[in-house]
Write a structure and sequence with these properties.
171 residues, alpha+beta, FAS1 domain, 7-stranded mixed β-sheet, two-stranded antiparallel ribbon, 9 strands, globular, Beta-Ig-H3/fasciclin, Adhesion/Biosynth-related
């Protein structure tokens, strides 16, 4: 089993401090895996298409975890493609695709209540597998890398999924 990576937070004063340890959660084999959740949901067909081209990422998220996945819905990818003047084929063939996908994965389980508590006093940085991303609260909503979290805490046997309305951007 992999050692859990610590999530590092930074406030406006830019001093680094570790986020409090997350509550251990039992792994249940009765739950679907992260990959099964993503592949069974019609809102994630573009995410599935992207992940399926990356065997290393498939292997990673099939692992024991725990992981947190910030899963963009199809409209998030469609908007991102349009904003970047890319076709789906161009994006799938891009050498930057693995890094883009890894920005959506934390190497630990992060529940929404813990994320909201961590950003209560201001934005923090999360260390995803691809880059640092900013987590922040706007009104009552949680944002990760500029993407609004629209559904939270979809539990999986090897982690948790939070649904986002955009492609997560790095710092």
């Amino acid at each position: 089993m992999k050692e859990r990576e610590e999530v590092v937070a930074s406030g406006d004063d830019m001093e680094k401090e570790a986020m409090p340890p997350l509550e251990p959660m039992p792994v249940s084999e009765d739950l679907p895996s992260l990959l099964e959740i993503a592949s069974s949901n019609p809102d994630f067909t573009l995410l599935n298409a992207a992940v399926s081209t990356q065997p290393d990422i498939v292997e990673l998220i099939q692992g024991d975890g725990p992981f947190t996945i910030f899963a963009p819905v199809n409209s998030a990818f469609e908007n991102w493609l349009e904003e970047n003047n890319l076709s789906a084929e161009e994006a799938l063939a891009s050498p930057t695709l693995p890094d883009i996908l890894k920005r959506h994965v934390l190497g630990t389980r992060l529940l929404a209540k813990d994320a909201l508590a961590a950003v209560a006093d201001g934005p923090i940085e999360l260390d995803t597998l691809g880059a640092k991303v900013v987590a922040e609260k706007k009104g009552d909503d949680l944002y990760i890398g500029g993407a609004k979290v629209i559904a939270t805490d979809v539990m999986a046997s090897n982690g948790v999924v939070h649904v986002v309305d955009g492609v997560v951007e790095g710092v």
